[in-house]
Amino acid sequence: MASMFARLFTVTPKFHSPLKPSNFRHSTPPPFLIFPRTTKFRCAKTSITVIRAISSSNVDVVTKTSAIKPGRAVESDSLPSDVRKRAMAAINSSGRRVTTGDVASKTGLNLHEAQKALQALATDTSACLEVSDDGDVLYVFPEDYRLKLAAKSFWIRTEPFLEKGKMATGYLVRASFGTALIASIFLVYATIIAIALYSETDDSGGGSFCDSLTNVYFRPDSLFRYPRQQVMEGNGEMSFIESIFSFVFGDGDPNHGTEEERWKLIGQYIALHGGVVTAEELAPYLDVDTKNMDDDSYILPVLLRFNGQPEIDEEGNILYLFPSLQRTASPQRSGLKEYVRWADRAEGVDKFFKENKWQFSKTNFSARAMVIGLGGFNLLGIVILGTMLNMTAKPDGFISFVSNIFPLLQIYAASFFVIPLIRWLFIQNMNAKIIKRNRAREQCAKALDSPNLSLIRKFLNARDMAQKTFISQDKIVYSTDKDLYEQGYETQEWDRRFEKIESCD
Fold first, then answer.
1. What are the DSSP calls for 88-148, one per residue?
2. R_g of the chain, CA atoms, integer Å
3. Integer Cα distance of 384 and 316 in angstroms
4. pTM of the model
5. Which end of the chain is more exposed for a tag (fewer CB within 10 A), N or C?
6. Mean of the pLDDT values across residues 452-460?
7. What whole-number distance in Å separates Cα of residue 145 and Cα of residue 275?
8. What's the rounded Cα separation, in Å, for the pair 49 and 21?
């Protein structure tokens, strides 16, 4: 068991000498105000809540890798750019007053990532922390927190320019590969013509021709003249030079970023339904095996990500409770208490998570045919040139230069068709798996459109257990933007609570 790294109150079965808050009247703010959680002690007629520090086995940000430590110049620079942006978007959508659960449910981040992001952003933007009477920590950000963060972090200020530079570099790589095809065709067929003419002239004449060919044709501007004419044709469509790269290497993962959207959908669904759901409700968003739906193991990643736990209802059904997503700092409608048909409940939201199939290339048919034609033309020239070079005794000048780089031209010409062939086989295999997963999730969604009686009762029990607690301002007992002695929660109230705890003994 992980040990507690900070604790204000030590509660044992026997309360012989409790440490009362009155003993800390002249001390600094207690450590539980930074990482609180609640523990409830119950006796026959009393339920008392004591705030204590969080354990390292639960949400221990301090001992995790890349933990937030005091003294760093800009804590937000240690966050991944995507995590920081998603957390800031959730903060803005929540009115700049959030809990860790709010950020996790709206972004799909796991609770550890959400808390780490909030702590880093709060440190860098001078946000204040609020603690409720139940021990919930709220992060309240100022209106200009984005400006403060940008003014403090050089990395964040330069990030937009780096992203533009990354896009420009990607375009140059794609354009360079396409330009290489044009250059290869030029070199191959220019060399074929040179060898043909060289064999019909004497040695001096041949040298003169090769020199003139190099001076006239082998110029950098002549290699890039054709690509520049083709770069921005059409209404924002892919240029011909880019289509060459797309044909060979494809256009990247079509599901890039969809995994984050999947977790975002799951988090929002759980929060909307009061933090209590069934496995069947989340099945349309997960990777499931329709042949073994009685096994709820597919929901384990959700439990780990959002700190969920199984609960047994009165009828013996397994429901899944997510306490961190039940408490919010944003006023919104509470979880659904009544059963609603899946088709109505999912209105405006994807009924199931659908992966995108891989495409061989996003180029249109005419551009693809032109690319294949030029690639075949280049390959034919390589075969002819290889035969002619073997028959040439002592190539010199331009012919000698092409002879030296001929292995590279052969590799380029062969890979122009070998790579797409391998990629096509890979895409067929990937799409078959994607179709199978999409079909399984769709079947789970259809099963929710017409559930049987036992499943309806299971849904109703989940709605009965659901709750959504809005942490309003009147529940705040401590805030870092006020002096400790100005807080409205008197120490006598804490003494009264401890007296009740002692009475349970």
1. HHHHHHTTTEE-HHHHHHHH---HHHHHHHHHHHHHHHT-EEEEETT--EEEE--TTHHHH
2. 33
3. 77
4. 0.68
5. N
6. 88
7. 30
8. 14
